[in-house]
Specification:
- The protein has four helices and five strands.
- Helix content is 32%, strand content 22%.
- It has a five-stranded mixed beta barrel with strand order 1-2-3-5-4.
- By secondary structure, the chain is an alpha+beta fold.
Length: 156
């Protein structure tokens, strides 16, 4: 199988949602950060954090970022890496899980805590820290009046 054909099949598998509920040994987790070498640090609904690995079939074909939700399956022989990613969740699968009461309530609370935006489809770069800056009105009015005075002097 060529690389292009393989990539096409993997992308179709990832994007096509079979709407299957998670098995008993699988759990829904949230990506906290990427650690490199196809390892990702995750957090569980209970707050536990550990490493999960990206399976070979997803590598170089599908990327996950901070804040994404994935379905993982535990690895029995893992000390540091305790699970492997089975499925990368999209909006439709999250909606399906919520309708079937499988979605963890703890992850719903996190959404409410974040800053709400009118348009949910608006891209927010989660890799940058949100910094809010303030300017006082007195500083901006002083600088404007100084520049006006300089312009008046040059005209004379």
């Amino acid at each position: 199988m060529s690389k292009v054909t393989k990539r096409k099949h993997v992308m179709n598998e990832a994007l096509w949602d079979d709407y299957e509920l998670p098995k008993d040994n699988q759990s829904i987790v949230k990506i906290v950060k990427s650690k490199g070498n196809n390892l990702h640090e995750i957090t569980t609904p209970s707050g536990e954090e550990y490493l999960v690995s990206m399976p070979t079939k997803f590598r170089k074909n599908i990327w996950v970022k901070r804040g994404d939700y994935v379905l993982v399956e535990p690895i029995l022989e893992g000390d540091k890496v305790k699970a492997e990613i089975v499925k990368i969740m999209n909006k439709d699968s999250i909606k399906f899980y919520k309708e079937n009461n499988v979605w963890p309530k703890e992850f719903d609370d996190e959404k409410k805590k974040q800053v709400t935006v009118d348009d949910d489809d608006l891209f927010v770069n989660t890799n940058r820290a949100y910094v809010q800056t303030y300017q006082s009105d007195s500083d901006s009015s002083d600088s404007e009046s100084d520049s006006d005075n300089e312009n008046d002097d040059t005209k004379k």
